[in-house]
Write a structure and sequence with these properties.
Largest sheet: 4 strands, antiparallel
Strand order of the largest sheet: 1-2-3-4
Structural class: alpha+beta
Number of helices: 9
Order of helices and strands: HHEHHHHEEEEHEEHEEHE
Number of strands: 10
Length: about 325
């Protein structure tokens, strides 16, 4: 092995890798181990801040009265008046628009769990408000129904926003720590274990790698992290986003929608529609996501491929760098 590979090998805890990756065979030699860095999840933290900002806007909209003249103050006054007038309905619409933009744009925050979190944050105030209305209607009907929650008012937007933000932070930290990567002298190993309900493991031999790409973002170049994509001929490492509407479980699209499912489809089906494109997967379960020193990891895999497969010929296009 080269001195570059030996340098990585000397820094890795081989026993720890073999203990945490039981699928690694005794014939393999651990050379590198890593995982997503904290800053690689920055987009999710930003999304959490945006959701908190929407909550605080509707929290303050009832009593905030900007003063002064000029276009800027006019726009602020207009927004405040709209927030004050629309209340819970305006909040739900604002959150659903944010959810739609986030999902349709295919950002790295467009996954299922972030979309579910956004939808839950959107609907809590309206469910709370409906409970108040049901209690009010029950009073006229002589029913004993009582809302277990305190009476709704706009001040509840602040604590709800804080709770939503904290939940987002906690889930993001757990999500980041759910992925573990290892490179041996024969394979690239990717493990996922998210909340003990979403687990997967895959080992990609160097002989099967057809494309290798490192693409650190501008922020990643500054802070020293980025993604390394390992693509095989069978499609591992690629993702295809298709235009469609997710209504329920697989096969539902072939069945007529009735009752509650039709209502859900009308209310939220448009949120699940995404534009179509095929690209290298940025899913942490399908690439080395947000790892430190991505260009060094890229070179390490390159050199190990040369050892296992042999150097590429002049007409081969096996590697790509951005």
């Amino acid at each position: 092995m080269s001195s570059f590979i030996d340098e990585f090998k000397s820094r890795v805890d081989a026993e720890g890798v073999l203990s945490d990756f039981p699928e690694i065979t005794e014939a393999e030699i651990p050379i590198w181990r890593g995982g997503p860095t904290f800053l690689s999840m920055l987009d999710k933290y930003i999304l959490g801040v945006l959701v908190l900002a929407v909550h605080l806007l509707f929290f303050a909209g009832d009593w905030l009265e900007p003063e002064g003249e000029g276009r800027a103050n006019f726009v602020i006054k207009l927004v405040v008046n709209l927030v004050d007038f629309s209340g819970v309905l305006g909040f739900v619409i604002s959150m659903l628009v944010l959810t739609k933009i986030n999902h349709y744009a295919n950002f790295s925050t467009s996954g299922k769990w972030t979309t579910s979190w956004l939808l839950l944050s959107s609907t809590i105030p309206v469910i709370w408000k409906i409970m108040d209305i049901l209690e009010w209607m029950a009073g006229f009907a002589g029913s004993d129904f009582s809302n277990p929650l305190p009476a709704w008012n706009h001040l509840w937007f602040a604590p709800l926003g804080a709770v939503s933000f904290i939940v987002m932070l906690a889930i993001t930290v757990l999500y980041q720590r759910s992925f573990d990567y290892a490179i041996t002298d024969k394979r690239v190993h990717i493990r996922k274990s998210f909340l003990f309900v979403d687990s997967s493991v895959q080992g990609i031999s160097f002989q099967k790698i057809e494309n290798l790409k490192a693409d650190p973002s501008i922020l990643g170049r500054i802070l020293g992290f980025g993604n390394v994509h390992v693509v095989t001929g069978s499609g591992v490492g690629l993702q295809v986003e298709s235009l469609g509407v997710g209504v329920g479980v697989a096969g539902d699209a072939l069945e007529p929608l009735t009752g509650f499912r039709r209502a859900v489809s009308i209310m939220f089906g448009w949120i699940t529609k995404q534009r179509q494109r095929t690209e290298m997967s940025a899913d942490p379960a399908n690439c080395l996501y947000g790892v430190k020193r991505p260009m060094d990891v890229y070179r390490l895999i390159n050199e190990l491929m040369d050892i296992n497969v042999g150097p590429p010929g002049p007409d081969d296009d096996l590697h790509a760098i951005e």
